[in-house]
Amino acid sequence: MTKLRIIVSGGGTGGHIYPAMALIKRLKERDMIEDVLYVGTENGLESKIVTREGIAFKTIKISGFKRKLTLENIKVVNMFLSSIGKSKKIIREFKPDIVVGTGGYVSSAIVYAAHALKIPTVIHEQNTIAGVTNKFLGHFVDKIAIAFHQAEDQFSEKKKIVFTGNPRAQEAAGIKANDRLKDFNLDSAKSTVLIFGGSRGAEPINRAVIGALPEFSEADFQVLFVTGRVHYDGVIKRIEQKYLDQPNISIQPYIDNMPEILPDLKLIVGRSGATSIAEITALGIPAIFIPSPYVTHDHQTINAREISANGAAKIMPEADLTSAKLFEGISDILTNENVENEMSDASKEIGVPDASDKLIAVLTDLIKK
Fold first, then answer.
1. What is the dihedral of CA 180, 185, 191, 197, to 10 degrees?
2. What phi and psi, each to the nearest 5 degrees, are found at residue 322?
3. pTM score > 0.70 for this model?
4. Which domains, from first to last, does the chain contain?
5. Annotated binding residue at 300?
6. CA separation for the pair 86, 113 (Å, rounded)
7. Annotation-wise, does 241 bind a ligand?
């Protein structure tokens, strides 16, 4: 079996980092790694996540372009050129068989440097709307792996594109029901909806849930409401004690290892980031997406539309969100078994539970060639 010396790079947001980590994890499970190096920035989120997992980590100094014409961009260009030099040094010392970039400006230098040194290169685009870094790198890399078919329109190099799905999907697909809902005083045997607004929480979603608590308290299903740590104390102060004591409602600031609870859920309400979509479609969980209107190019709305077009999810724009609409949308799914099953089947149809293996096949094929 082929064993790889691989450099992986991605940063800025968890959406770039977690797919990279899932790929590394799967390579290790298949005993396909001779050595692995992660290249990131010193102050980026990746520095905490990667080092915590005991993976070798090196840094380069680089930043992204400003969206407006500014003298600051001259410094950015100089920093990029300097980081290419350091990246080439890292590559020559590590001697990788292949270099993979998963997005974020940190991956631009190391992937471009690998191309210049004639090392096989792959980028992975998680969203329907490609990031600036991946659009730039698309001209130089050997393969462009995508997680949404719609992303094909973002790249001119059509022959390089291969659909793999998001590696986080395979990681989620391997999780079995584990009765973890009992940690939140809920019954895993009962129909449960998870409502959350991303890792930090979202005030508009929290506000809608608080207003719907009287209806939720009388519902036949359970509600696991995750507020986000920064919002939790403020949310609790706004809720009457009788709703805090309801046996079918659990309010939490944050859930560590959230994917572990996914197999015990019947419905998810939340943002439509690429990682969330990969995980829930791998498990065939229906969803109500409330896309964040604050992300670049409104890509969460585009992500959500691709999933909802298949019948696997419903979209509730944040601007239209009310407590009444939230409860009605959830109730319409969880009190109608046919609707729930149809959405679940549609979700499974577009899920990619072997996404990491598909991406690994792209890597090994490039190395062989």
1. -80
2. -135, 165
3. yes
4. 4-172+353-368 (3.40.50.2000), 175-350 (3.40.50.2000)
5. yes
6. 9
7. no
Reported as a single tens digit per residue, the pLDDT across 32-70 is 999 999 998 888 888 889 999 999 999 988 765 444 545
Q: Are 275 and 166 in contact (CB under 8 A)?
A: yes
User: In which residue are the tokens 């030099």 written?
Assistant: 85
Give the torsion through C-alpha atoms of 158, 162, 168, 171, to 10 deg: 180
CA pair distance 26, 103, nearest whole angstrom: 19
127 annotated binding-site participant: yes
Torsion of CA 108, 111, 113, 117, to 10 degrees: -160
With tokens 């471009």, the residue in question is 112
Residue 287: beta bridge partners?
Answer: 268, 313
Q: Is 199 annotated as a binding residue?
A: yes
Q: How far apart are the first and last CA of the chain?
A: 16
Do 117 and 87 contact (CB within 8 A), yes or no? no
The proportion of the chain whose per-residue pLDDT surpasses 90, expressed as a percent, equals 78
Sheet strands (E) in the chain: 4-9, 33-40, 57-59, 98-101, 121-125, 143-146, 161-163, 192-196, 222-226, 249-252, 267-270, 287-289, 313-315
Q: How far is CA 202 from the centre of its chain?
A: 17
* Strand duo 249-252 + 192-196: pairing: unpaired
CA-wise closest residue to 352 among 283, 276, 265: 283
Q: Is the dihedral of CA 309, 164, 135, 28 positive or negative?
A: positive
